[in-house]
Amino acid sequence: MKEFRRSRRRQPTDTIHITDTMTEAVIGHLGNISETGMLVMASAPLVADALYQLRFILSNGGGGPQSKVPLEVGAHLLWRDEASAPGQSWVGFRFITMSDEQMQHLRRWIDAPGSQYA
After folding, report:
1. Where is the PilZ domain (predicted)?
2. Which long-range contacts (CB under 8 A, 24 or more apart) does 56-65 make?
3. pLDDT of residue 118
4. What's the predicted TM-score (pTM) here?
């Protein structure tokens, strides 16, 4: 099957929690991510076509506390689909704001050796 996405999507090897910065509540965990958006397995009720301010932490592979880089993004929830597990859903976010420094870190993380892609 041919892939038609414009951006490559990396699947995390560890659980990466996604936090709503407005409520400081964990809303789910990362399914995969690209430079333009991410798939999240949500465990909180989220509203389609709404805007969210989200935070998650990516490792830079160095080990220790300095290797954890928090990213804070503005995101638009494009779609929502119920998952097979009760109270969970798959949601697709498109990034609308992210600092240049954080974008550079995200690009390095996506392109890191040994990455698994969706």
Report:
1. 6-111
2. 56/16, 56/17, 56/18, 56/19, 56/30, 57/16, 57/17, 58/16, 58/105, 58/106, 58/109, 59/14, 59/109, 60/105, 60/108, 60/109, 61/112
3. 66
4. 0.86
